[in-house]
Specification:
This protein has about 300 residues and is of the alpha/beta class. It is built from 11 helices and 9 strands. A 5-stranded parallel β-sheet has the order 7-6-5-8-9. Helix 2 links the parallel strand 1 and strand 2. Helix 1 crosses helix 11, helix 5 crosses helix 6 and helix 5 crosses helix 11. The mean pLDDT is about 95. Bound molecules: phosphoric acid mono(formamide)ester. The site of phosphoric acid mono(formamide)ester has 10 residues, from helix 2. Phosphoric acid mono(formamide)ester binds next to helix 2.
Length: about 300
């Protein structure tokens, strides 16, 4: 029997229990079987209407949620801030309440402001899924990342994962840290001193500034993009220097003591954090992450929609 999630909304991994995450993974594994069948659709969300509100650019998350909703037979409306009345001064709550007046049951929202999903959940009567809020959390990305590691290695317990790059501005890093720690992985963060938040050790992670040492330590490297759009000042002297110190290439992977798994949440800046021969190597599970994203988002939508309040 399907257990209920302990939360009404998915606002962040911080709020989830280990049982919630296990339930999401078990449900995602079932949906992964479904989406690999010739008939990929199930009627689970028939008569449920989901609004996808994207106040910030997205390729993977937006398309993955939309496909997940379609596979579950939900009715969908899509909204992007650039083509909406937000540009005429309408507030977030007014925008969402107008959408909800059209009888929408669930909101998937990406927003540039940290805390936007939490704020919305306190002011509107719909289930909210956070699809990334500024530098705060990106819970479905962390779930699909952890699910992909589990699928590849068969466990998370004791697995050594290093998250590399712009930790300071990354919602993916924070959600991954919460998720991996809850599931028993050992987590390291690696990057320039200026891109690692002070006191991050308090979250139970190891800090390493030397890329080679980090790669020799880990089983899995989750490589992040430099988030130039969130950087108000320069955090490193030049991109050229960043590539020299933190760029990963095939030669470097081949020189390690063991074969590690390479991940990236996308979008990749090829030639910066990863060269193409590293991103497209057989060690990379980047496209499996994208595939798993649909199944994990189906699981989250299904479990939240079915929750009795
Ligand atoms: N990984 C991720 O969130 O990608 P998008 O910004 O394209 O959605």
């Amino acid at each position: 029997m399907t257990q209920q999630l302990s939360v009404k909304h998915l606002l962040g991994i911080k709020d989830l229990t280990v049982e919630d995450i296990s339930q999401i993974f078990a449900t995602a594994a079932n949906f992964k079987d479904v989406i690999n069948r010739p008939i990929k659709k199930v009627p689970s969300l028939r008569d449920t209407t989901v609004a996808n509100l994207f106040f910030e650019n997205s390729t993977r998350t937006r398309l993955s949620f939309e496909l997940a909703e379609k596979r579950l037979s939900a009715d969908i409306i899509n909204f992007s801030a650039s083509s909406s009345s937000v540009s005429k001064g309408e507030t977030l709550i007014d925008t969402v309440n107008n959408i909800l007046a059209m009888k929408v049951d669930m909101i998937v929202m990406r927003h540039p402001k940290p805390g936007a999903a939490v704020f919305l959940s306190k002011h509107v009567k719909a289930k909210i899924i956070n699809a990334g809020d500024g530098t705060h959390e990106h819970p479905t990305q962390a779930l699909l990342d952890a699910f992909s590691i589990y699928e590849k290695l068969g466990t998370l317990s004791g697995v050594k994962v290093v998250i590399i790059g712009d930790i300071m501005h990354s919602r993916v890093a924070l959600s991954n840290i919460f998720c991996l720690k809850k599931l028993g992985a050992e987590v390291m963060v690696c990057g320039p001193v200026t891109l690692i938040p002070r006191h991050i050790e308090a979250l139970g992670v190891i800090v390493e500034n030397n890329l080679r040492k980090a790669l020799n330590w880990c089983d899995v490297a989750n490589v992040l993009r430099i988030q130039l759009e969130r950087q108000d000042i320069k955090y490193f002297p030049s991109l050229r220097e960043y590539i020299m110190l933190y760029g990963i290439n095939r030669e470097m992977l081949d020189s390690l003591k063991k074969e590690i798994v390479v991940m990236h949440p996308g979008p990749i800046n090829r030639g910066v954090e990863l060269t193409s021969d590293a991103a497209d190597s057989r060690q990379s599970i980047i496209l499996q992450q994208v595939e798993n994203g649909v199944a994990v988002r189906m699981a989250v939508l299904y479990l939240l929609a079915g929750r009795q309040d």
